[in-house]
Amino acid sequence: MPALDTSDLDALRLRKLEQLFDAFNRHDGAGVMSAMTDDIVFDAAAGPEACGRRIVGTAAVRAAFEGTFATFPDVSWECTRHGVFGDRGISEWIFRATAKDGSKIEAEGVDLFGFRGELICSKSAFRKDRPVLPAKGAA
Question: What is the largest CA-CA distance in the chain?
């Protein structure tokens, strides 16, 4: 198989980011993981470490994303822009979700990605620290 030139690989990686967020918005754990390497490293936006919370490997990362889908049945990421720069990528988005108590989260964020070949090998999430919006009718 002939080697891909840089522009072809960048285009494939950009398409991979689009497919990834389509899968996130379908709440499709298998689809999300199909964009990632088996040794994926995901640094969540929040957690006890400087990197947030580091989650490693397909099973653990999939469980984390599926936990988000279960906690917030309407969760979505409205992507405003994707970019690929060699083996790095970035996605800008607005995270929207409603908790079971009716409170809402709506905040801008970005993901920084690392690629190995066409697949994502690292994802580091950053989200604005905006207060949760109370449920309608809550004091």
Answer: 63
